[in-house]
Amino acid sequence: MFKRPRQDERAREWLAFEREAMPHMDDLFRIAKWLMRDRVEAEDLVQETFMQALQSFHRYEQGTNIRAWLITIMYRTRGKRLRSGNRLRLVSDVDERIAETVAFEPPTPQGINDEEVLRALEHLPSQFQEVVVLSDVEDFTYKEIAETLEVPIGTVMSRLSRGRKLLRAELSKYANERGIRGAGK
Amino acid sequence: MQCSDFHKIVDSYLGDELLIETNHEVIAHLEACSACRRELAARRELRVQLRAAFASSAALQPSPAFTNRLRAQLRAKALHETTTVTWGQWMAIAASILLIITAGLLATRQTAHNTSIELANSGRGNQNEATRIESPQPNASRDAVNLFMAKAAELAAGDHRDCAIDYKLAEEPISLEEAGRRYDRAYINLASAVMSQQKQLAGGMQFVEAHSCVFNGKRFGHIILKEGNHLVSVLVTDLDNAPAEIAAQSSPEARQAVVNSSVGGYQVSYLATAKHGIFIVSDLEAARNSQIAGILVPSVYEHVKRTERLT
Lengths: 185, 311
What we know:
The complex is a heterodimer. Chain A is mainly α. Helix content of chain A is 68%, strand content 0%. Chain A has 2 domains: 7-84, Rna Polymerase Sigma Factor, Chain: A (Orthogonal Bundle); 93-178, Winged helix-like DNA-binding domain superfamily/Winged helix DNA-binding domain (Arc Repressor Mutant, subunit A, Orthogonal Bundle). Chain A contains 9 helices and no strands. By secondary structure, chain B is α+β, with helices and mostly antiparallel strands. Chain B folds into 2 domains: 3-60, no CATH class; 65-88 and 127-135 and 151-310, 2-Layer Sandwich (Phosphorylase Kinase, domain 1), CATH 3.30.200. In chain B, 52% of the residues lie in helices and 17% in strands. Chain B contains 11 helices and 8 strands. Chain B has a 6-stranded antiparallel beta sheet with strand order 3-4-5-8-7-6. In chain B, strands 1-2 form a two-stranded antiparallel sheet. In chain B, helix 1 packs parallel to helix 3. The N and C termini of chain B lie far apart (74 Å). The interface between A and B is large, with 53 and 46 residues.
């Protein structure tokens, strides 16, 4: 009952996983919490992601971007959950049209605090939030974003451009409320 | 390049996604155009601010309890998965054995209705003493209960060995308080229930540690004591999915005795409440282990029963 076969091999793989993947746990949780809003759901998602990652760690190519690999697993896991829970919200035309109607270049206001930045981001339709977070926060390349979200690169580019525009429009609302002057003028 | 061209590709420029030639054109334009330079600086700053907001927002940070728990789970999965039969699997086995035995019992009902049968005599060469339950239960149910508890005793002995002796558990132990809040309130004040009996334990028994740990997927409340060079574990665990007869045998009417057995070189004395198993494990002489159990188990039993009534 107490036997432990292949313990050395397991220990080696665990050490590699611990060294490579574990340092990104906090980072993944932040994105998960952002995506899910709910702490318990975020914890579930991160847990499932890491369990999945551990299981397929032999498929991870050493030396490549492990954070991108983990985040991709997390988005896929989330996608699966949303689909199974029938909670998938398709990108609506309305959202896209709203994005189109935003003034060309709202100025980027100065003196906005972190909390306001996050609140403004939260007001964006989710498909724009996703690309902004992956690009601006996670520093993903267009290609990585496209693979993670399973959309064409052209879509990534247009969503990113609109997402940033929308974000600036939101931020200028806060700035106007507080009488902060835009930097672009 | 015009300002309007720059605006079209500024996102790609920021993401370093442009061809080298285009990059040069952008740089040349920026050198000449202060408005676009300001625009680019503002965008860069927003990017930096977004990143900082994510990294510092209190609402987005994981709790240390969560990261510790996940780390322990991953570690356990990485190092132990599939090497042993899990507690849940044992429960399934115990349940199916009970079913088979009960079916057989129905055929020979009259002969099986008996009294005073030895406990913990089902295989494994366990040595027994003081192992009588006097209640009119059929043999078969008792066998299932015995098998179930013998299995649980093995896990207790395993936890004593891997935790108290070798300290090589996959998952880091947590405090009894935390385990009580999260898993089973029987763990709260468990240490007090044990230590209240310390004076009665002749022989200079010392307190070593109290925590909750996991062995083979099974969580225990664990109090470690020391007598000379011998470590003694007091272990309490939830008997989830136990045969219903365990609940029946621990009813107030049923007279119970602590079962003493030898498992994997350790002495294990144990008793079940309706929902929990209480185990005293050590490498002391069987008589001494049984004596310690005689002093500690009643107090722990009362404590555990009290928490069971509350839930």
